[in-house]
Task: inverse folding
């Protein structure tokens, strides 16, 4: 099942663990989550069961301890979240979104160089798609 819903903050935390660690049991995810207060096992289990119903994670039920994996990619999730944020908060303007992001959280010299390269590639490379160029630049960070 392909997910069309946006993950909640708690679901994003779980997805981040799965993206970083790869397929994991509920216990492994629960131990990797940092929270104050820490999340209980049954809370994490219930969240992951809901995520499976939503199509955000897949579940291998062949062993006693079910192993979950992210069913959506980190890149596509980020893209959907950014698209949604840009549309809702900035009227769809990538410029306003980028200016706000850069004014809120200062970029390092290395990040500014990657941004410059991305802008040059987007402006000078008509054959490249912005999504692919952004993904390539992000991988370099």
Result:
């Amino acid at each position: 099942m392909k997910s069309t819903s946006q993950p909640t903050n708690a679901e994003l935390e779980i997805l981040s663990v799965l993206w970083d660690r790869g397929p994991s049991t509920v216990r492994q995810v629960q131990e990797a989550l940092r929270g104050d207060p820490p999340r209980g096992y049954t809370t994490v289990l219930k969240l992951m069961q809901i995520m499976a119903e939503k199509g955000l994670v897949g579940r291998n039920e062949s062993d006693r301890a079910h192993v979950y994996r992210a069913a959506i990619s980190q890149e596509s999730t980020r893209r959907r979240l950014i698209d949604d944020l840009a549309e809702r908060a900035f009227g769809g303007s990538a410029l306003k979104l980028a200016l706000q992001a850069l004014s809120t959280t200062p970029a390092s010299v290395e990040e500014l160089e990657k941004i410059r390269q991305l802008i040059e590639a987007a402006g000078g490379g008509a054959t490249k798609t912005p999504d692919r160029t952004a993904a390539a630049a992000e991988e370099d960070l």
